[in-house]
C-alpha cells in the first residue's frame, strides 16, 4: 500500500465498570480517550499495570463495551463504528479485518494444534491445503515441533500454547491487529520471530496496536509510544 | 493474499433477517413466561438464550418455533418456500411443512425428537420419505452419509435409538434434522444430561456443522460455556424479561446488567 | 339398493334388518360421504348390535343400512361361507330382514366379508362390505387420533413409508403380508382391512362398490367403483403378491389364495382355495383336479 489511510479512529471514549453485586462499586478506566492509527503503523500502549491498556485494546475489539465515544475501524472503504454496529457486523469484521492476539490461548479442548491454527483462515473459505501449508509454516517459524501439530494444545507448556496462539493470530493477513502482551511467556528467540511477524504485517500495511512488556520488542516494532493515561 | 468468501460464510450485508421477532409476550403467571422480546436473526447467526431455570427461555423458544402461541407479538420467518410468513397467522399446513423441511428442532431429551422404535436409518430417512422420496437405496445412502457426518458408525444404521448412548442419540437427532438442509435450527439444552466428555464431543460437532452448513441456530442453555462456544450473540433472560443482549464475548466478559454479572461470576472461570 | 318398504318379511318385533330407519339414514349419510371422499374415514354413530365388538358389528351395520328386500346376501369369513361367524351373520339377516341368502358369489348382490376378497371378479351391480377392526392405517405409528386426523388432512404419510423402510431394513423385503396399506384415488391412505396383500390388486378399479365398516372404532369408509387403489412400496422394492408352488388340491387353481391344511398327525399338508365358492365353481366347470399332492 503506497497511500496510508487512517485505519483506527477512536474519539471521546469513556469506559467505567460498575460491579452491581459488590455494592455497586464503580470505577472509571478510560476517560475521553482518543487515538488515530494509520496503515503500516504500530502504536504501542504503555503505562502502569491496571491503567487501562488491556481495557482499551479489548474495547477496540468490541470485547468490552464503552460508555460513550466512538471507535471507528476501517473495513475496505468504510469506517465502521463498532460501538454502534450490529453483532453480525462485528463478527464479520473479526473474521477478515480485525485480528486479536491475547496473552492466553483460549483452548477448545479436543482440537489439534494444526486445526486450531488453520481455523481462522478456513472460516474465510480458503481451501484446506493452503490453510494447512500456511499453518505449518507459521508453526515452524515459531519453533513449535512437528510432533505437537496433531495434538491438542491443552497439555502444552505456557510458552508452547502462546506460540500456537500467535500462529493462529497471524495466519490471516488482518488489516488491523491488536496484540495484548503476545510475547509474555516467550524466550528471546521466539520473541524475535514475533517481531518479524509484526514487521511483516506492518510492511503489508496493517495497522497495529499493541501492549508489550519486553522493551526489546517495543523498540523493534513501535512507531509510536502512547501513554494510556494521555490518550 | 486474497481470501475468497464461500457461500456458507454469509456476507454481513444480508438485508433480510431470517427471523423477525416483535413484542412476543407469553405469560402463565406474573414472572412465569416471557415478555417483550424483540430481535432479528440473520442467516448464519447463532443466538444463545441463557438464564436459569424459570427464566422463560424455554417458553420463548416454543413461541419462536411455532409450538406455543404467544399472547401477543409476531414472529415473521422468511421462508425459502413460502416467502415471509407470520407464523401465527398462516395455514397450519405451511407451518408443518416448515417444521419438516426448513427448520430443525433438537430437543433436550432424545426421545422427544426421535422415533425410538424404528432404526437410526429410518429416523434419518423419515423427512426424505415425508417429501416423497421413494427409492429405498437412495434413502439408505443418504442416511449413511449423515450418520458419518455426525460421527456415528454407519454399521449401526439398523440399530434402534434405544440401543444408543445418550450422546449418540443426540447426534442422531441432529442428523435427522439436517437431512433436509434446514436454514434454522432450534435447540433446547442439547447437551443437558450428558456426561462432560460427551457434551464436549457434541459441541464440537455442532460447532463444525453450524459453520460448514451456514445454519442459523437459536439455542437455549443454562450453560454459559456452551453459549460461549456456539453463540455469536446472547440474550440473557431473567423472570421472563430479556435483561441484556449483545455479542457473546461482550456479554460474558463485560456484563452490564446486575443479573448478568451475577450469572457470569457464579461460573468458575478457567 | 332397493327402495325402502314397510313390508318386513323378517322376525316379529324387529325392524327390517334390525336397525331402526333413523339409524340407517344416518349410516347411509356416512356412506355417501365416504363414497364422495374415497378412502376417507367418516365417523358415525355406531349402534349396539346383538354381537360383541370384534365380531363384525361394523360390517353388519353397513349391510343393515344398504340391504333391501330383493337383495341376495353372501357372507364369508376368510373366504369360506361355512365358518361359524359367516353362518351367524347370514342367519341374522335372514331372520331380521327375511332376505334371500346365497353362497354363490355370482348370485349375490351384497357380500359381507372378513379377511378376503372373493376370487371371482365382482360386477358393477354388486356391493362388497368389509369388516374392519382398526380403520386407521397410521395407528400403530401414531396413537393420537388428533394427530392422525391432521396427517390425513395434510397428506403427511411419511411415517407409513418409514414402516416399510423398516421392513426392508430388517427383513430384506416389505414384510407386511396382510392389512397392507393402500393409497386411494391418489389422495387418502387407507387400511384395506386384514385381507392378505394378495387381494390388494383386486381393489384397484373394481367395478363393484366397496364399503368398509369398523364397529368398535365407529368409522365408515368407501371406495367407489373404478377407483385407483395402489399398494405402497418403494421404487426399488415394488409391491409383490404372495404365490404358492402348489395348486389347489381340489380344483387345481394356480392363481387363487391357498390355505394350508394339515391332514394327519404326521403333519402332511394340502393346499386348498380359501375361497370355497370359487373352488366349487371351478370343480363344476372343470372337474376335480387329478393332481396328487406330495
Structure in a nutshell:
Chain B has 270 residues and is of the alpha/beta class. Helix content of chain B is 37%, strand content 24%.
Describe this structure in words.
- The complex is a heterotrimer of chains A (231), B (270) and C (294).
- Helix content of chain A is 34%, strand content 27%.
- Chain A contains 7 helices and 9 strands; from the N terminus they run βββαββαβαααβαβαβ.
- Chain A has helices at 53-60, 87-96, 113-122, 128-141, 158-170, 188-203, 215-221, and strands spanning 6-19, 25-38, 42-46, 68-75, 78-81, 98-101, 176-180, 207-211, 224-227.
- In chain A, the strands form 2 sheets. Chain A has a 5-stranded parallel beta sheet with strand order 6-7-8-3-9, sandwiched between helices.
- In chain A, helix 3 packs across helix 4 (128-141) and helix 3 (113-122) runs parallel beside helix 5 (158-170).
- The longest helix of chain A has 16 residues, at 188-203.
- Chain A is globular and about 50 Å long.
- The two termini of chain A are 27 Å apart.
- The mean pLDDT of chain A is 91.
- The longest helix of chain B has 18 residues, at 196-213.
- Chain B is built from 10 helices and 10 strands.
- In chain B, the strands form 2 sheets. Chain B has a 6-stranded mixed beta sheet with strand order 6-7-8-3-9-10, with helices on both faces. Chain B has a 4-stranded antiparallel beta sheet with strand order 2-1-4-5, covered by helices on one side.
- In chain B, helix 4 packs across helix 5, helix 4 (120-130) runs parallel beside helix 6 (166-178) and helix 6 packs parallel to helix 7 (196-213).
- Chain C is of the alpha/beta class.
- Chain C has helices spanning 21-36, 57-66, 84-97, 145-153, 158-171, 200-203, 276-286, and strands spanning 42-43, 72-77, 100-101, 110-114, 127-131, 182-184, 188-190, 209-214, 219-223, 229-231, 258-262, 269-273.
- A 7-stranded mixed beta sheet of chain C has the order 1-9-8-5-4-2-3.
- Classes of the chains: A alpha/beta (231), B alpha/beta (270), C alpha/beta (294).
- The interface between A and B is medium-sized, with 29 and 32 residues.
Q: What is the number of helices of chain A?
A: 7
User: DSSP strand (E) fraction of chain C?
Assistant: 15-25%
Contiguous low-pLDDT stretches of chain C (5 residues minimum) are 1-5
Give the helices and strands of chain C as they follow along the chain.
HEHEHEEEHHEEHEEEEEH
Based on CA atoms alone, the radius of gyration of chain C comes out at: 20 Å
Largest sheet of chain A: 5 strands, parallel
Give the % helix of chain A. 25-40%
Provide the residue-averaged pLDDT of chain A.
91
SS field, number of helical segments of chain C: 7
What portion of the residues of chain A fall into strands of 2 or more residues? 25-35%
Oligomer: heterotrimer
Instruction: Report low-confidence residues of chain A grouped into runs of 5 or more.
Output: none
